[in-house]
Amino acid sequence: QSVYYSIESIKIFESMERLSETANEYGELGYRLKRRDIKKAFEYMRKGLQIAEEINDSVSLCNLYDNYGVLHELNKNNDSAFHFYSRSLNICEKLSDSVGMGYSLFNIANLLVINKQFTEAEKYWKRGLDIRKKLRNEFGLAESYSVIAGFYLAEGSYDLSIEFFNKALVIFKETDQLYYQILCIEQLSILSEKKNDLVEALHYHKLYS
User: Fold this and answer.
1) Phi and psi dihedrals of 200, rounded to 5?
2) DSSP H or E run through 145
3) How many whole angstroms separate alpha carbon 151 and alpha carbon 119?
4) Mean residue pLDDT across the chain
């Protein structure tokens, strides 16, 4: 039903020739469909990007490129994801869009962690963390801690990974983000097993099972 209303909104914006709103609505619809129908997600996102590029709407492109990168990452096309995250970051920097920069920096850091480019990844997440601390956005900060925890997990620094997953978990609990709480608890259970701390592993396992 939300898809229906989005398409109706797009029709209204198109009839009024409000191109920025049309581009953003296409992009939002594509992003919402990313886990339900990746083919449709790409289709709608591309329509939004095409419109935004044609009218040179930098504000919209900052967000659209980052979300388009997310679609590519979900589709296991990390080179394309990196390309669009970087394009988003470049525009956000020119616009002094701190929120957008935070997203792009952590998305790039996460890709670099996957590629085991830890030194480069650390440069991006440290910069992103500084930005998000200044913004004082609780959810963004918790998301940042999760990425950093993943960085330390991939690097094999389990104690630091546990520290940052716990930091994230505290905020996710405070902000009632159940889905993200479960993700953190699962990782904490895995980390406890890796450290042969079976008591803690069982404790975390009971929390999410």
Assistant:
1) -65, -40
2) helix 138-155
3) 10
4) 94
The alpha helices in 16-117, defined as continuous H runs, are: 19-32, 38-54, 58-74, 78-95, 98-114
Distance separating alpha carbons of residues 47 and 208, to the nearest angstrom: 39
Which of 3, 1, 4 lies closest to 31, judged by CA?
Answer: 3
155 vs 169: CA distance, rounded Å: 20
Burial of 135 (0-12, 13-18, 19+ CB in 10 A): middle
HSE value, Cβ hemisphere, 13 Å, CA-based, for 133: 7
Q: What is the pLDDT of residues 24-61, one digit of tens each?
A: 999 999 999 999 999 999 999 999 999 999 999 999 99
Residues 178-189 have a mean pLDDT of 93
Angle between helices 58-74 and 98-114 (to 10 degrees): 20
Asked if residue 64 lies in contact with residue 45, where contact means CB atoms within 8 angstroms, the answer is: yes
* Interval 135-157 mean pLDDT: 93
- The crossing angle, in degrees rounded to 10, of helices 58-74 and 38-54 is 160
| pLDDT category of residue 208 using cuts at 50, 70 and 90 | low
Q: Which residues have a Cβ under 8 Å from the Cβ of 58 and sit 6 or more positions away?
A: 91, 94, 95
Question: Global pTM?
Answer: 0.88
CA distance 118 to 113: 6
Alpha-carbon span 91 to 77, nearest angstrom: 22
